[in-house]
Amino acid sequence: MASFLHTCFAIASRWPTVLVAAYSLAVLSWSMPAGLFPYKSSLDAITTKPLIFLNLWQGWDMFSPEPRSEDIWIDVLVIDRDGSQHHWPLTHMIEMPYFDRWQKERWRKYFNDHLRLDAERTLWKPFAEYWLRTLQTQGHDPITIELTRLWHPTHIPVSAARRADLYRGPWNRFVFYRWTASERGSR
User: How far, in Å, CA of 139 to CA of 80, rounded?
Assistant: First the structure.
């Protein structure tokens, strides 16, 4: 019995190592394609809820093995009661200074990987209402908030010479959600 307790204490004293090893295995599983990692479905089933809860999940669709084939971003158009219009390019990282890109990377992932998708339409109204509250604290009086997704195919390979022209090409635009002031009274 003393030997068993000694072993348990030895393992418990190494909890940081065990934690790092478990997290590394979970990230490896999340990052690997199912065809290359046979334990992926079992490990993901165990680790998904804790990783999402702790905001430690990984998504590698912008890299390998199959990167996105289009540039995407989300834009918010706000029309105030006085008729003024304001645009916020939420995830157009190329227009942001590097420090802002670093700070807003999780937001970019949220907007591009979830908010813009039709399958995630339950997020649209709560996000518009969040944006409404944020704008009202800044003195705006919005009557319309439009969420727009923009996209266009990437041109592979992208050379340094083409990079400057990449964002001048035509963008596809689609307003995927429109909030109006008349919804304010329907709550």
Answer: 10
